[in-house]
Amino acid sequence: xxxxxxxxxxxxxxxxxxxxxxxxxxxxxxxxxxxxxxxxxxxxxxxxxxxxxxxxxxxxxxxxxxxxxxxxxxxxxxxxxxxxxxxxxxxxxxxxxxxxxxxxxxxxxxxxxxxxxxxxxxxxxxxxxxxxxxxxxxxxxxxxxxxxxxxxxxxxxxxxxxxxxxxxxxxxxxxxxxxx
Length: 180
Prior knowledge:
Elements: E1 3-6, H1 12-36, H2 43-66, E2 68-72, E3 76-81, E4 84-89, E5 98-101, E6 110-119, E7 122-129, E8 134-139, E9 143-147, E10 153-157, H3 162-175
Parallel strand pairs: 8-10
Antiparallel strand pairs: 1-2, 2-3, 3-4, 5-9, 6-7, 7-8, 9-10
Helix pairs in contact: 1-2
């Protein structure tokens, strides 16, 4: 049976930053273009241009924040956040899983974003650690579940109930004969 664990919501600061980027930038660009333009433009055209500029931003905004789950069926862990999905088999997860503060988690902390969203209070996607290891983040700040693997990447997940997810992962290891 598949269990779903919701990920933590983005911070208010992250939402505000994305809103500003998604609305202020297209509107500001349009009005700057109109100000330097030598021709007059119909108000209907301005409205259509604004709609066309803001609609993709609204879709990006909704997608970025609405998709936030961890699914576990006993065999595979699947993280779905923003535009990113990471899958890992239960057999690839190492026993050193722990609830950690991101400032102190293994790997020395986050070094660079390789393919992800990096806003204050909202980091999702693929990042590199200071030790060179790749990590898939779904992180909003504070404590999170660090899941090391024997594959090319680790996971750092800010689940609403990280303890329940940790216990579920540990119990499946015990039920499989204690391989972890």
